[in-house]
Design a protein that fits this description.
It comes from Coregonus suidteri. This is L antigen family member 3. One of its GO terms (cellular component) is cytoplasm. The protein is an alpha+beta fold. The protein has three helices and three strands; from the N terminus they run H-E-H-E-E-H. A three-stranded antiparallel sheet has the order 1-3-2. The protein is elongated. The termini are far apart.
Amino acid sequence: MAAPCTENNHKQGKLEFALDVPFPSSLEASIALQSLSPDRELRKGGISKELTVSGSTLSVRWRADEARILRVSVGSFMDHLSLVMETMEAFGPPVTR
């Protein structure tokens, strides 16, 4: 889902996108967060990405200066997310610690 553009970001010309991904459990959401967090944006300026977990939902928020940069970042993240989810499905539910 796309996040509404805030007044402050609209004045700065920033684009925003938000994605909420539900997982079967909070442990699986945390595993996905840990797997996806190390991937920082290659470009230092022009985009920011924030990942958080609330319950069993992984939330991702992007802010970017240009639509092209936002599109590339979201597309790359979706590829990584798909790989993480396929891997988790292949190995089955995590064992509680």
